[in-house]
Amino acid sequence: MKEYEFPWVTFRLADRLFGIESSFVMEMLVLPAMSQLPATADYVRGVMNLRDNVILVVDLRRKMRMPSASQHVDELVELLAHREEDHHKWVNELEASVKENREFKLTTDPHACAFGKWYDTYKPTNLILENHLKKFDEPHKRIHALGTEVIMLMKAKKGDEAATRIEYERSRTLTQLTTLFAEAKNILRETLREIIIVLNNGERTVGVTVDTIESVEYLKEGTIDEIPGLSSQLKDGLVTHTGKTARGEKIVLLMNVDEIFSDAHAAADLGQVTAAAAGG
Questions:
Q1: SS3 270
Q2: Do 233 and 61 contact (CB within 8 A), yes or no?
Q3: Structural domains in the chain?
Q4: Nearest partner of 227 among 48, 1, 50, judged by Cα
Q5: C-alpha distances in angstroms, 118 versus 71, 76, 127, 142, 177?
Q6: Phi, psi for residue 255 in degrees, rounded to 5
Q7: 109 in helix, strand or coil?
Q8: What mean pLDDT is predicted for residues 3-28?
Q9: What is the predicted pLDDT for the residue at 280?
Q10: pLDDT digits (tens, 9 = 90+) for 173-225
Q11: 31: which DSSP letter?
């Protein structure tokens, strides 16, 4: 593999950074409408018409045994719905502990609840979502601080004041969190904009879907190496080398373009592709 003849197009699939040598890249565009193909591999998205050229489109996520982008979004939306529900239950339990004059046993540490643990470790690749998630920090800490405050009030035999504080923060902070969760779920759904990288090897053209384009750059000198033992997730020779970005030295999994074309050819014959495109 020649290291510096061409720069690399780096892109994201989930939380991993991949690269394709730019000499194979014709163009990059937002995923357009496509025609479906019958009886093909599950990683074939369909075909698209690009300036009267019929192009087979392969879903790299599925090819790499990852959930599809839409499945990934659905999973995140479901996770956020559960974490929102957790905080409603948390406030309800805090209120019940005051009414029944018993110990409150749920966590008052914002970093220890299920959402806090996720929030502290999740690294979004969506800039809009990243900026939105920052808005959770203050109200999420405030709602958990309410627990500590209520525990202290109960120890001081101030149950009525504790109940008043819970009702105030329920209408203010919990409502704010509920709105933030709803907005986060909408952002996830509305900003799902997969990108197609159109590749050509001199004989055939194929499109591959990716989450986001990261950069077009030369990798750091001397960092391209063979992977000694391929992970089971790196699917049959699709990734055989790694490199590092010049800035930040992020690890890039380098795609074997020959394997992409070979898989696309095996997945659907050109006659089937052309017929589907004509029918669509």
A1: helix
A2: no
A3: 1-66+218-263 (no CATH), 69-190 (1.20.120.30)
A4: 1
A5: 19, 11, 17, 18, 15
A6: -80, 140
A7: coil
A8: 90
A9: 47
A10: 999 999 999 999 999 999 888 899 999 999 899 999 999 899 999 999 889 88
A11: -
Tell me the three state secondary structure of residue 211: coil
- Give the tokens for residue 148: 């500590």
- Cα first-last separation, the chain: 39
- Model's pTM, two decimal places? 0.74
Closest by CA position to 174, among listed 143, 204, 196, 153 = 143
Fill in the amino acid letter for 242.
Answer: T
Q: Which helix (H) or strand (E) holds 144?
A: helix 137-155
Sheet with 225-226: list strands edge to edge.
212-217, 8-13, 16-21, 251-255, 239-244, 225-226
Q: What is the Rg, in whole angstroms, of the alpha carbon atoms belonging to the chain?
A: 25
Q: Can you point out the beta strands (E) in 33-168?
A: 44-50, 53-59
